[in-house]
Amino acid sequence: MEHGKKILMIVMDGLGDRAVKSLDYRTPLQCARKPNLDWFASNGTSGIMDVIAPGIRPGSDTSHLALLGYDPYKVYTGRGPFEAAGVGLVGKAGDVAFRCNFATVDSRFNVLDRRAGRIKEPDTTELAKALDGMNIGDIKVVVREATEHRAVLMLQGRDLSPRVSDADPHALTTVQTSRPLGPDAARTSEAVNEFVRRSYEVLNDHPVNERRASEGLLPANILLPRGAGVFPDIQPFPERYEMSASGVAGVSLIRGICRVCGLEVIEPPGCTGGMDTDMEAKTCAALKELDRKDFVLMNVKASDVTSHDGDPSRKIETIERLDGMARIIRKDMPEGTVVALMADHCTPVELGDHSGDPVPLTIYTENSIKDGTMSYDEVSCARGALGRIRGMDLMPILLDKADRAEKFGA
Amino acid sequence: MEHGKKILMIVMDGLGDRAVKSLDYRTPLQCARKPNLDWFASNGTSGIMDVIAPGIRPGSDTSHLALLGYDPYKVYTGRGPFEAAGVGLVGKAGDVAFRCNFATVDSRFNVLDRRAGRIKEPDTTELAKALDGMNIGDIKVVVREATEHRAVLMLQGRDLSPRVSDADPHALTTVQTSRPLGPDAARTSEAVNEFVRRSYEVLNDHPVNERRASEGLLPANILLPRGAGVFPDIQPFPERYEMSASGVAGVSLIRGICRVCGLEVIEPPGCTGGMDTDMEAKTCAALKELDRKDFVLMNVKASDVTSHDGDPSRKIETIERLDGMARIIRKDMPEGTVVALMADHCTPVELGDHSGDPVPLTIYTENSIKDGTMSYDEVSCARGALGRIRGMDLMPILLDKADRAEKFGA
Fold first, then answer.
1. Is residue A55 domain-resident?
2. Using a CB-CB distance cutoff of 8 angstroms, which residues of chain B are in contact with residue A395?
3. Nearest-5° Cα angle at B348, B395 to B265
4. Which of A286, A349, B100, B156 is deepest in the core (most CB within 10 A)?
5. For residues B79 and A389, what is the distance between their CA atoms, to the nearest angstrom?
6. pLDDT of residue B297
């Protein structure tokens, strides 16, 4: 099978839900008008999927790793490296990365503001540059600004460990001393503590902060790392599956996951990862990408945003916008494409956070067995012919549907 | 539970399929008239089964190992030993076996014909005898003729490895030097290369080839090994499950799997493994075997043959013949038998090769829960009460249905 079919993986973030009292105990998907999503269910094969494992509440990071076929229990040690990759900083296997906040502290390292007066670019850009390139012993320090008051820190060197506690106190109290949480982690936690001390030295008198003080703004005089994780040693997706691959995502974290896994990241204009995202432009960009690649992952964040907000009627509206996306895919997808519709996790509106419920899944391609599922929702899909699978099973199934799988045996 | 029920495992090779365009997007099973297969579905409990794992495309060898409860990832290193056992040559654990072709080469070992002018018995019998019993250092060589131009080679000795490349070039080019593909495999690859050289010395001037030359036929002057595998160290099926067991199969490879697993192989006359097989005679032989054994596996190859041919209407005809088999089983099975109907893998007619789709499964015994499944097909079974299971789960389930399972705990 030299030329398999193309694969389009559509991840509708946080889409699945529970029975909502104000919706007469139906789910938002059961209430929304969504003829195009339902067309895929009617012409494809459906099921439900435990993205990590039954009852496990996935993050958007661990879920996307599983959906791409990488075992999050093996490759995920913390969010740091994926946030770093989200802003374009992709380390080597073994490099340890952290999410950071620019914060304001007094001279005794009491945190006065965890967001340094909601500092943002271009101030953060200049302050990150002042810290970037520092050396701590033989450990090299890389710092990049991220969105708003955030930054990422990467430590490069031998024998680093992600098993260290946060310097960020997550509250208005004293900066924490990073502690080793596992064997051989002392070298890393000491580097973190040294970095935090020196960030204060470098930043406290920095011209940007002097200017901010003169403007009555809080200084960003320290960088507080949290969420340590190690860049995993993984076989890049294109090599592992023998497919060229792109990721289309508005959210930085998802872009980071894609980059670490070796997907090319496409950033179409207007694709924000928020409610104001131009879903049509994004869908067209994903389809255009599918012309030149074998595999495209597209993440749409809006459904998760409205779910966290907790308003079922806004979630229903978002689903109806997602149906517009499905209409474009249905109309314009290349012939013979395998389309997989899913969520990365449920985000029940009444919970306002991720849950461990299985997500609805539909896999469509022309020769999918038609299983009588008429609606793309949590209940209808659960009766479909795919049964209940796990996130880690998805890639093997899609490769098989796309006639790209190797035979095991004769 | 001293006396459990008897178990009849019916494997309809390559039976499952996908939605076929020319069948209005139904599967051949959905189109065939098969009242007896449907009777089992209506009176049994159905589900779908990933014979290896979701999306994994099984060979007929790896699939049958899994169906018998042996993890193919542990016991399968290559097809050689199962082909050898197929022609009656069952080695000890650690012996390494190969499939071989009698071929024609020139004096510089360029392959002129990979099938030596389609040589067959009795010529191959005599040539195999000439090679059998050779010693390469302290390694003992066993050679047996197989069907048509084929043979099997077994190496017996200490520290042999199946991780060696093929000497067979699989094309009309020079005979390949077998290379070690893993640590400690050099001893084996050197033995293979020595065997190939000596096979030429023994065969080139053999009287059979002199006679063939005088008749204008190509000489079979070399034996080319491929598909190395090691005889696994497994607990024989009858011992493992405390059941006497037989396998009824027309195909040599499946007979080999049964023999390696310790099943007695029954070869009823007229049971060819092809389209011309006498399905009724085979079914009667399997039922007769069930009179004296606890467990009988019956493999019917015809459904796979028509699937590889790619003609949906011929596959439908074959299914209707399989229904005749089901009629006999329904009528004549011993009271209290557990009957399991399944495929070993799907072979979609439009693909013409094995796929990784789950296979339909029905388990019937008098006290099976009746789950409302009315038809034995991919879609109906997927809605059945067995849900989606794996091939390795089948034997424990059948043992339990047969009231033969050990209790775990008190």
1. yes
2. 55
3. 40
4. B100
5. 30
6. 98
Query: Do B252 and B345 sit in the same domain of this protein?
Result: yes
* Among A41, A42, A40, A16, CA closest to A29: A16
Determine, for residues A409 and B63 on separate chains, whether the beta-carbon distance falls below 8 Å.
yes
**Last residue of a domain, which of A198, A230, A262?**
A230
pLDDT classification of B3: cutoffs 50, 70, 90: confident
A64 within 8 A of A11, measured Cβ to Cβ: yes
* pLDDT at res. B178: 98
For residue B406, being part of any structural domain is answered with no
A371: its two tokens: 């299983």
* Residue where a domain stops, chosen among A214, A230, A246: A230
Q: Output the CA torsion sign for A349, A350, A353, A359.
A: negative
Whether the model clears a pTM of 0.80, i.e. scores above it, the answer is yes
- In this structure, the answer to whether residues A218 and A103 fall within a common structural domain is yes
**Same domain for B86 and B64:** no
Contact between residue A307 and residue A349 where contact means Cβ atoms under 8 Å apart:
yes
Provide the domain limits for residue B97: 82-230
Q: Do A396 and B53 touch (CB under 8 A)?
A: yes
Nearest to A138 by CA among A162, A155, A114, A122: A155
Same domain, A328 and A250: yes
Kindly state whether residue A377 falls inside one of the protein's structural domains: yes
The CATH number that applies at residue B260 is: 3.40.720.10
> What is the per-residue pLDDT across A49-80, written as a single tens digit (0 to 9) for each?
999 999 999 999 999 999 999 999 999 999 99
Q: Is residue B185 scored above 60 in pLDDT?
A: yes
- Which pLDDT score is estimated for B2? 53
The identity of residue A235, as a single letter, is: Q
Indicate whether B409 belongs to any domain. Answer: no
Overall number of domains in chain A: 2
Of B71, B235, B78, B264, the residue nearest B153 (C-alpha): B78
User: Hey, are the CB atoms on B383 and A388 less than 8 Å from each other?
Assistant: no
* Nearest residue to B117 (alpha-carbon basis) of B215, B257, B203: B215
**Residue in chain B lying closest to A393 (CA):** B54
Residues B388 and B255 placed together within one structural domain of the fold: yes
**For residue A1, what pLDDT is reported?**
43
**Scanning the structure block, which residue is given the tokens 């503001």?**
A113
> Cβ separation of A403 and B351 shorter than 8 Å?
yes
- Chain B residues at the A interface, defined by Cβ less than 8 Å, are 18-21, 25-27, 48, 52-63, 72, 76, 79, 227, 253, 348, 350-351, 353-358, 378-379, 382-383, 387-388
Please give the single-letter amino acid code of residue B121.
E
Residue B357 Cα, gap to closest chain A Cα (Å): 7
Nearest CA in chain A to B386: A387
Query: Does A198 lie in the same domain as A266?
Result: no
| Dist. CA A17–CA A27, nearest whole Å | 6
Q: Which residues of chain A have pLDDT under 50?
A: 1
Residue A308's identity, in one-letter code, is H
> What ipTM does the predicted assembly reach?
0.92
pLDDT range class, residue B276, cuts 50, 70, 90: confident
Which residues in B80-221 belong to E strands, given as ranges? 96-105, 111-113, 135-136, 139-145, 150-156
Same domain for B199 and B151: yes
Q: Do A387 and B48 touch (CB under 8 A)?
A: yes
**Residue A372 near residue A41 (C-beta atoms within 8 A):** no
Do B368 and B338 touch, CB atoms closer than 8 A?
no
Q: Which residue has the tokens 């092809």?
A: B274
Cα separation, A363 vs A386, in Å, equals 9
Closest Cα partner for A100 from A251, A205, A261, A228?
Answer: A228
d(CA B318, CA B289): 24
| pLDDT tops 80 at residue B93 | yes
Same domain? For A224 and A363 the reply is no
Most B CBs within 10 Å, among A367, A380, A383, A398, to test the B interface: A367
Note the pLDDT of residue A268.
Answer: 85
B contacts of A366 (beta carbons < 8 Å) = 19, 21
